[in-house]
Amino acid sequence: MTTERFDTVVVGGGQAGLSVGYHLARQGRRFVILDAGERVGDSWRRRWDSLRLYTPARYSGLPGLRFPGPGFAYPGKDDVADYLEAYAAHFDLPLRLGVEVDALSRNGNGYLLVAGDRRFETESVVVASGAYHGPKVPSFAAELDPGIAQLGSTEYRNPSQLRKGGVLVVGAANSGAEIALEVSDTHQTWLSGRHPGREPTRAGSVPDRLLMPLFWWLLSHVVTVRTPIGRKVEPKVKEGTPLARVRPKDLEAAGVERVPRTVGVGGGLPTLEDGRVLDVANVIWCTGFRPDFGWIALPVFGEDGEPTHERGVVEAAPGLYFLGRPFLYGFTSSLVGGVGRDAEHIAKHLASNG
């Protein structure tokens, strides 16, 4: 087993890991970024085909390099993947691809990471493994008839994957609403779940372009863990952000039927909160994600599985940081264009503490 030593190890080579890598490189720190993917941006390439960012390119750049293209265009998921790959190359960041970290533990005053037959010893670790870990699928999903095709939002690509027959999309936030609208062109579709509300302007509209600077400033500086409004909004945001592109009238016009929460299974079919049983051939779970930090053998997590931290800094484990988590500091913390601020904060804290 080979052992390498670094000042800092960053786990995750997505937008969060690359952002903090930019700042660490400017500090002259000896560090490495480990990522399980075979190519930078793979986590974006695996999302559904028609996915586009909910923020325009002008507000989607990482530190030091603007997102290419028209400022008010909404990049597709492959555009984002290509930008991340170009970003890593532009700044010559020290990436190790195809390296999945199996364990993180204490090692004297520092840390030890194990990835297969490789060991990495370091003084500090930035966990930037993203916001999308294990899908939060209810346990009763296993009771559905095996003839029903089940896909998570990270497994769905396009309607060609679906079986002939109706589609139930569970989860009515942005992912669920957009997928439901797409599949309704070819399948009878039901959309199940709480309506998360909608943004005041439709993404890409003229009012949206005019008001976006104000919206971005408010989301970045007002809707944070340090303000009463931010603390009130945080739990709602974690359940699902307001609809950006799709409006209820769009779903209605497309023939998508809004139905209550899906709460169980009856006769192998999904059962709704109002007692109805839907005879569908497909279920797409857009019910969010649960954190998966089982590889971290450190007592730094709360009952909800999330790390206990102060703006990404883990006081209980000096030298350990988390980055890119939903609402790490504010609404924009897990967005491509918002993670850079948190990355800079963590890099500064790391530099001031050796």
The average pLDDT is: 94
- What structural class results from the helix and strand content? alpha/beta
Task: Spell out the helices and strands N to C.
Answer: EHEHHEEEEEEEHEHHHEEEEEEH
Q: In what range is the share of β-strand residues?
A: 15-25%
Outline: globular
What is the third-level CATH name, the topology of the largest domain? FAD/NAD(P)-binding domain
Do you know the CATH architecture of the largest domain?
3-Layer(bba) Sandwich
Count of DSSP helices? 8
> Nearest-angstrom radius of gyration?
21 Å
CATH superfamily of the largest domain: FAD/NAD(P)-binding domain
Outline the low-pLDDT stretches: none
Features:
354 residues, alpha/beta, FAD/NAD(P)-binding domain, 2 domains, 7-stranded mixed beta sheet, 5-stranded parallel beta sheet
Overview in brief:
This protein has helices at residues 15-27, 42-45, 77-90, 174-183, 206-221, 228-239, 248-253, 339-352, and strands at residues 2-11, 31-35, 95-97, 103-107, 110-115, 118-127, 134-135, 149-152, 167-170, 189-192, 257-259, 262-266, 269-272, 282-285, 289-290, 320-322. The chain is α/β, with parallel strands linked by helices and 354 residues long.
